[in-house]
Amino acid sequence: MSIYQVNEKGYYGPFGGAYIPEMLYPNVEELREEYLKIIEEKSFQEEFNQLLRDYVGRPSPLYHAKRLSEKYGTTIYLKREDLNHTGAHKINNTIGQILLAERLGKKRIIAETGAGQHGVATATVCALKGIQCAVYMGEIDIQRQAPNVARMKMMGAEVIAATSGSKTLKDATNEALRDWINNPIDTHYIIGSVVGPHPYPDMVARFQSIISEETKKQLLEKTGKATPDMVLACVGGGSNAAGMFYHFLDEESVQLYAVEAAGHGVHSGESAATTALGKEGVLHGSRSILMQTEDGQVVEPYSISAGLDYPGIGPQHAWLFRSGRGNYVSITDDEAMQAGLELTRLEGIIPAIESAHALAYLAKIPFKGDETVVICLSGRGDKDLDNYMKYFDF
Ligand SMILES: *Cc1c(COP(=O)(O)O)cnc(C)c1O
């Protein structure tokens, strides 16, 4: 077993575990007991792979970005998660979890969402399966993210406003947890990243590991070698990065770059650069690294990209950072926006601003010229057009 994967107690080094209120114990314990058995069943694997192929459109291409490669003087491939149905990697996880929920006999799905991307991915698979769906969303986020609210409603999901506290993601999370406590038998809670109590981080990483599984095969076909020299991915909670790293964790020759959002600058007071600023603590049910004040209050994060605007990282990332296996770096709003425009002009691909953070880090690596580099293009930029237009004054 890899030292970078979860152990039988639910930990990655000192990180992970399940720090949950007593009343959630039955829900999480049922998942913990059942998830591996179910995921490894042949019928589960067959249905999962069939939906990834026919519904999501996998395998996503591994695209040799020639003009981008020329610009940086090395060989760069893009793993095109932006071409997935619903426009990002999140659907890989929600499909996995809906199939799991079905097999656990659940009749209802709940989720929380900030910008609405995870809510849309969840509402989508609930429509696909005809399962009742409630998405908790902060009242302020509901106002800010009207198109995603419309998508969820069109899919038949109920969008429930969280009206307490700052009326944003963390309040939506609290209300979703309260719902789950009150509905332990019939409801499954779909978490959208590699965060939360064990077994969520491991479960979500397994569903996203299809990203590196395909990358290895595709690289072998294209280059005769299954391992790149480096892979890069952006990190909010860390699910696309966990999927991109998964099958390379034990191949120490592969350098792993995890790119966080530095917002207006790491030390500007407006950032989401968790490893640079954070300390060990417990957030959303697991021990990890998070941005907090001296007395342990969670600090409000900031990034221009909603998907990276999270005050922590999943426990596996905390361990990859602490152990030195991964390089945890950060990119500012400005650098990301320029990199998003650059990819658009060089390759005709408008990336999500989240993904643009990973692209921006290319400029900081001193390439020798003979490297093979894979970047996880986690999502497409359609949802960010307003932001791009305002920023560049188009
Ligand atoms: C949600 C999102 C992210 C951040 O989530 P991770 O769990 O860190 O992958 C990154 N990119 C896109 C396009 C997203 O929608």
TrEMBL record:
Main EC class the enzyme belongs to: lyase
Pathway the protein contributes to: Amino-acid biosynthesis; L-tryptophan biosynthesis; L-tryptophan from chorismate: step 5/5
GO molecular function: tryptophan synthase activity
EC number(s) stated in the UniProt entry for this protein: 4.2.1.20
Domain Tryptophan synthase beta chain-like PALP stretches: 57-379
Cofactor: pyridoxal 5'-phosphate
CDD domains: Trp-synth_B
Keyword terms of this UniProt record: Amino-acid biosynthesis, Aromatic amino acid biosynthesis, Lyase, Pyridoxal phosphate, Tryptophan biosynthesis
Regions crossing the membrane: none
Catalysed reactions listed for this entry: (1S,2R)-1-C-(indol-3-yl)glycerol 3-phosphate + L-serine = D-glyceraldehyde 3-phosphate + L-tryptophan + H2O
SUPFAM superfamilies, per database record: Tryptophan synthase beta subunit-like PLP-dependent enzymes
GO cellular component: cytoplasm
N6-(pyridoxal phosphate)lysine sites (modified residues): K90
UniProt xrefs under PANTHER family: TRYPTOPHAN SYNTHASE, TRYPTOPHAN SYNTHASE-RELATED
Chain's role: The beta subunit is responsible for the synthesis of L-tryptophan from indole and L-serine.
UniProt xrefs under HAMAP family: Trp_synth_beta (MF_00133)
UniProt family annotation: Belongs to the TrpB family.
Subunit: Tetramer of two alpha and two beta chains.
Protein name: Tryptophan synthase beta chain
Organism lineage string: Bacteria, Pseudomonadati, Bacteroidota, Sphingobacteriia, Sphingobacteriales
